[in-house]
Please model this.
Amino acid sequence: MRLTCPLCGARDLREFSYRGDARLMRRPAAGAAMEDWHAYLHLRDNPAGPHEELWLHATGCRAWLRVRRDTTTHEVLSVELAAEGRG
Amino acid sequence: MAYSAWDIFKNGLIGQRDWAPVWRDPEPKPRYRVIIIGGGGHGLATAYYLAKVHGISDVAVLERGYLGGGNVGRNTTIVRANYLLPGNSEFYSHSLRLWEGLEQELNYNVMMSQRGVLNLCHSDGQFDAFARRGNAMRIQGDDALLLDRAMVREHAPFLNFEDERFPIRGGLLQPRGGTARHDAVAWGFARGADSLGVDLIQNCAVTGFRMEGGRVTGVETERGYIGADTVGMAVAGRTGQVAEMAGFRLPIESHVLQAFVTEGLKPVIPGVVTFGMGHFYISQSDKGGLVFGGDLDFYNSYAARGNLPMVEHVMEAGMAMIPMIGKARVLRSWGGIMDMSMDGSPIIDRAPIDGLYLNCGWCYGGFKAVPGSGHCFAHLIATGSPHPAATRFRLDRFETGRVLDEEGTGAQPNLH
Amino acid sequence: MSRLPSGGQIDRGQRLGFDFDGKRYGGHPGDTLASALLANDVRLVGRSFKYHRPRGILSAGSEEPNALVEIRAGGALSPNTRATVQELYDGLRATSQNRWPSLRFDALEVNDLFSPFLAAGFYYKTFMWPKAFWERVYEPLIRRAAGLGRLSGKPDGEPYDKAFAHCDLLVIGAGPAGLMAALTAAEAGAEVILAEEDFALGGRLLAEQLEVDEMPAAAWAAATVERLSAMANVQIMARTTITGAYDGGTFGAYERVGEHLGALPPDLPCGTFWRIAARRAILAGGAHERLIAFPGNDRPGVMLASAVRTYLNRFAVTPGQRVAIYTDNDDGWRTAEDLLSAGVSVVGLIDSRADAAPKLDCPVIAGGAIVGTEGRLGLRAVTVRTESGTRRLEVDTLAVSGGWNPAVHLTCHMNGRPVWDDAIAAFVPHPGAIPGMEVAGAAAGRFSTHAALEAGRAAASRVLDDLSIAHTAPDLPAAEDAPTRISPVWHVAGKGRAWIDLQNDVTVKDVALSAQENFRSVEHMKRYTTLGMATDQGKTANVVGLAVLAELTGRTVEETGTTTFRPPYSPVPIAAMAGRAGGSHFQPHRHPPSHRFSSERRAAFVEAGLWHRASFYPAEGEHHWRQSCDREVRMVRESVGVCDVTTLGKIDVQGPDAATFLDRVYANTFSTLAVGRVRYGLMLREDGFVMDDGTTARLGEQHYLMTTTTGAAGQVMDHLDFAAQVLWPELDVSFISVTEQWAQFAVAGPKARELLSGVIEGPVDDTAFPFMGCGPVTVAGVQGRLFRISFSGELGYEVAVPARFGASLFRELVRRAEALGGGPYGMEALNVLRIEKGFLTHAELHGRTSADDLGLGRMVSAKKDCIGKVMAGRPGLSGPERQQLVGLRPAGPVRKLVAGAHLFSPASQPGPATDDGYLTSVCFSPALGTMIGLGFLRNGRARIGEQVRAVDLLREQDTLCDVVAPQFVDPEGERLRG
Model:
């Protein structure tokens, strides 16, 4: 697999590490219900198909990336900087 | 038909004419008392024990592909009961005891081979952690031996003791651990369940659930609607998708784990050896292939195949630990879809919907769990209360914080 | 000798000597081991896996299931080497395998006699009585018979490399399609890699009597290769198997760099495993001819018809003197033609098609089938059945063509399922199965030379268009364009076994039994019979097996479906995919600045992550680590010790929002920390459990220096990056790891200040550096930093200088310490010192402990949010049900404690229900003169003052202990502030 880092270009999979579902970007407020916290931390998206997820260009530029990738084909559909893609 | 030495002899003389089909291919009935979704090891074992232990044979197992085609057919066949935490400890202990009588129970040779599972450690800290784990195993009533470096060398002289990156400090050996013939386990349970009246229905994917008043009343399938009083899910790898059909989410991600087998070689590795520093484990099959694997590929996947970085890492770890395997040629690599839960431990519990039961989250430890999981899941479905060996595999533990985190890595599935 | 007097692509000028099973033979450069064996009339080469049937050479490629041998010796012993791939070199020594005592007389051939009882899956039905016999009797017997070749049992003595390559176009296979594709793309200026498994380029062009562009096909191939070689944008990789197709245009490839050389030159690896990133790929890997399952089809001398042509045309070897051909398609006729033109006697051409009428100068038996063979160690005769009866033909070789299977393997690696094509009676690749890959020529089911050339050019053209590379297509050379005519015969009924999978001894009867027992899914059949699971992974067997299953179950092949092919395409040595990263090179070694000093002092080392840290420094006369450790501990408690703590993670945090950021990632508060002060920090994971701890210093208003534990440095860095970029990108904060930039040494003990006063310019007293103070200092003229912190409980400092000064500063500190009666101390002493104080390490911070468990619950600030705060409030993370940190001291006659022991109430019997906790860390405390331990005990804080048993069943220890607070020495911290 290869990911195109917005800062570094197309790079091999071995430079990256992975965190999972991009919902981890949307941390609940401190006062939110435990239910919301539980959902945030544990009930992640797990689709067979396009998936929004967080990757770290760990041995590259250290940017956290928001990646759209198909979990059935591993096709990378889009990559953007997590810090800029908080849609 | 029951297998006996006489049958083997007789059929040898008559050109194998007399062997009956191992299972029927029944048409689905309109309604069953229990439907088990998933004809893998767990689903088939559940159906078997429902019929055998609880006398419930009005059961259908619905399988989207062929029986035993999921992870039970694509794992590295390791059986062990060497867990640390209460919850896992008693469950895997229970499962291992079931394994030990499985051939006689099923009248089918699953080739359970207790040649030992040796885990290696490389520092005093890891050695202490192994001592804690070994004691937990002994307290549970299982076997465990703590080996120092010299004892490891005696047990497994083929390991690297000369040119080591992580010198072997010692090991934890479970002599009763070992391997079994994975396909045979699925087939043995399938044959047993079928002979007790369970309908095994292949090529019958579930496409949806029907519910009335918050209760499951049946499932939609590729072969039409099938009604049921109770539905059990045993679809590890696809749990998220099936749960989605039922309208709820689970603390599970699907990940790919690769495994490898070499060409057949004369036996050199007697039991199972694991190398924690490299996430590497290896055994040698009765056919002669070295069967080995490593860590998850680390990204969510339903593709049942991995990529080269992990392939190479596994080979490097193998060469670090057992340099004599260098000339063995890798024959085949494959991937399985792992049901990775948020704490690395499974769930056997009621679903948030009445009449629906969950058996999921087996991570990469599902094979050794097959008899225990089937036994405990059948108990839950039949009696409505958890089996004593599986009381802590609760779904609500993520909300209460009573998680079973063997690795201590938290809610990060790819690290378990 | 079966070498023809002329022809072939071998160098007759040179003779190469080689051994097979100890017997000496000769061959020529250009030979494979298989062609050289055939040239020397060696026909018996191996034994099958299950029945130990005598076997010869079937094929001329990597799909060979029979002719597997061991070559080389010692650590280089290479089992299961395909004689059909292995190039001959002078001095090659090959040995047959899976036989005892010899290839001709193999004791386990007895299995063949018992074969009626050893049908598919028989072992699932037996070996169960009596129960204990499985492990004691049956399985050992089965394992003794397992496997084919042997491993040496020694470390692999030969080096392997790994490499990356990048290209616009990867062409896989250098037959007519591949050569034409490579030429088309190369002439357009694309960066092309042309990979070929064989050592010679040309594919079937090397093996056929064909003309391309009005010259012999092999000559055209050579000329084309020469043209390509001259182009700077083309990389030709012979002896290179593309092993797998992976995501994003990545391919694995194994290049057999030195496997064809007798002795490996010092600068060459045995092989190189390549990772090729290709923008596009063209698969032109050709096709494999298949066998027909007729009775007795496994004898040495039964060969694939195309292989017979390969040996004849390329190697100038005739596999036999009296040859028959059995075919169900026109391709078999070519073998007859080539044999006849080489002057070999063709006893008969048996074509299964009744209307077959080839114009050949040999007996043709149309509508015939082979129903039996003779010859134990080599074929002697075949029996042919026609409508008019049966005939026996005396032959020594039978060339069989059951049609061709396109090499679809790579197209299956990403789950693509091949598609059945009735016209050629074979599977062809699923279009688009691998993104960015085209399939051309025989691999796509287009078998004529013309079609292959045309398809190669067209595929390259499409790729070039796709990549927007302007091109003009080269002229298409003239070549034959024979149609594919086949009327497939999968198996021939008759008396005797008809093999499908030769190596695993799977016969038509086994497939029939599998269907009879309702193992009718292709996957069930494969797994039940082991068909397709041999070293060729079904290249020779799968399609025939599927077709037989389809016939037996009354389905079409299409309905029956297919099993899939997975990487690698052909087997690759483990060592090759590990490259140089085996043994001690598995992971990097990290050495702190004191490493050389410690080595000189004969220190023992301990692994800490990738670091090697000094464990203890043995002094004159010390023979046991405890002697050194106890001395070092006393030294720190009584005078002064120096310890290298560079390995701790150091993260420099700066920016206007640095304080806010730290407040959010730490459980406790850092915005209130004064400049010039240090604070202990506790970091939680978002799930509320403790992730790490460490001290963080405030160096300036907007400048902090965080330390992490050695093992968690990387994890914490990822975590901070996540928090800053993903959770709170609005915060203006920057940070970077400076672990490697700063050397840092602990100086601890009552004389620590005295020692440092001599090295550091300016005062280091309580005013300048109060407890938990920090600031810049000048150390021997170098700008450094001083922190008044302690992990030992003694008056302690940590002094930091840029890493390049670390080694000399450490020596200087040790020299001064020794002058004061102190010296260096290692991890063992450090551990004792911290246990005596109840400080934590990864033994306690193992990812399953909460702040409350550790007695640090009050550190989680109530005044602010932080990562992990909410989830730490879940009921399961605190309270009496939890095991809490306590100290333990032996209270009875047994004085020994071992880490990993579990804790029980004195009265209870050890069992799962009574298990109350465990010991994490133990040591002998020189200060107290006894062993002490830290551990987690259920509701432990409330049980201080009670007694528990520490039971270790593994080492048979049972120690009665007092439960005490987890601080054994100086609980008030007076010495720290000293």
